[in-house]
Design brief:
This protein is an alpha+beta fold and 380 residues long. It contains 14 helices and ten strands. Helix 8 runs antiparallel to helix 9.
Length: 380
């Protein structure tokens, strides 16, 4: 954890505090992609590491990241209050709702730890703008995209390749967007019950749209036509549902999260690894071992273990061992990899790109922090 946390604090951030995102091991270049999202993950990982290791340099690095994230807030015009969280890559300048929401838990945590409301306020103002401008008429869902240049919310089109050639329906342009449980944190921060009401509405939509597989195949980045499963998206939904259960004690939320947790066990390949590209009906592509997905699944398993579900215990130990055994050495020949947890993202094409992603280390640190705390309170 110490080696990985030093990597997260010293190598991953830019001078401004934003995450460098994905490292191309062939060209030795960083690929800035969904930078606000990656920075939110960086902040949370640094804080969880700080809680276990007590190294104040980690807290300071988290504050730099939080300042940079809050600095993306739009100060005037029709998008005032929103975060300029441009997606990048093939989606260009579009702002994706979950590019913001998935990263906000670290911002609220940073405000709690430092007593500085700036970070939670920035996240809350962005969430408020989305609630006022992006809620679908049916309720419980948000449209996925807004154009930061025109402030247009995309209600009848989708930029994703899997939707090309079709007239998009509601599930192609919107989803619950409960990932990151932003509106629950907003309720806790402000006391405004409207935010809690919307969060529970999001989770209720998750209940009725979950497939028997335990996944949410109707929503990208899953692909129900191909039966393709994103390795982390479903875990975010289950994480939100588990928090809804803890708040309401409604067991429907717990049972739904549990279905996803068991599905993630089945997603593990015969070598105990979760890969990036997965399908319901065929084995995964084994060129891209996804350390972030493994660590995130293990975080969900650990939370369910605390609820009394003992069947996940072996997978916790296996995940920890995998992270430790595949971690890049602290004396690796490439200083951009020293201490990083592993995740290879193999992007094909005329010029192949093999990325080691920052999120492998960030989700890995979150899990290892929780795992260390779990071991310290468990009789062995």
């Amino acid at each position: 954890m110490h080696q990985a946390s030093q990597y997260a604090a010293k190598v991953l951030p830019t001078e401004a505090g934003l995450s460098r995102c994905d490292y191309d091991t062939l060209s030795k270049q960083w690929n800035m992609y969904e930078q606000a999202w990656h920075t939110g993950q960086l902040v949370l990982a640094l804080l969880k590491s700080y809680e276990v290791l007590g190294d104040t340099s980690l807290l300071l690095a988290a504050q730099r990241g939080g300042n940079a994230w809050a600095g993306l807030q739009i100060q005037q015009g029709p998008l005032k209050g929103m975060i300029l969280a441009q997606h990048g890559g093939e989606l260009g300048e579009l702002v994706n709702v979950t590019t913001i929401t998935d990263g906000t838990p670290g911002l609220f945590e940073l405000s709690r730890l430092t007593g500085n409301p700036l970070y939670a306020q920035a996240a809350t103002q962005a969430g408020k703008w989305m609630l006022q401008n992006m809620v679908v008429p049916e309720g419980g869902m948000l449209y996925n995209f807004v154009d930061p240049q025109s402030a247009e919310v995309w209600k009848d089109r989708s930029p994703h390749k899997q939707h090309s050639g079709i007239v998009p329906g509601l599930f192609q342009v919107a989803r619950p967007n409960a990932e990151g449980y932003l509106y629950l944190d907003m309720f806790t921060f402000t006391g405004d019950s409207a935010y809690l009401k919307f969060f529970l509405a999001q989770c209720s939509v998750l209940l009725v749209t979950q497939h028997s597989s335990g996944f949410w195949l109707d929503f990208e980045p899953n692909d129900h036509v191909k039966g393709k499963i994103h390795p982390r998206f479903n875990t975010w939904n289950a994480e939100a549902l588990l928090r809804a259960y803890r708040f309401t004690k409604d067991k429907r939320y717990l049972e739904s999260a549990l279905r996803t947790a068991h599905a993630l066990v089945r997603l593990r390949h015969t070598d105990e690894v979760i890969y990036y590209n997965n399908w319901l009906a065929k084995p995964p592509e084994t060129s891209s071992p996804c350390g972030s997905a493994m660590a995130f699944a293990a975080l969900l398993w650990l939370e369910l273990h605390a609820e009394g579900y003992q069947e996940f215990l072996p997978y916790l130990h296996q995940t920890a061992q995998w992270l430790i055994h595949t971690q890049h050495s602290a004396v690796h020949s490439d200083p951009n990899l020293r201490g990083a947890y592993r995740e290879y993202w193999n992007r094909g094409g005329d010029i192949p790109k093999v990325y080691v992603r920052d999120i492998a280390t960030l989700f890995g640190l979150r899990f290892m922090a929780a795992y260390v705390q779990f071991l310290s309170t468990t009789k062995r």
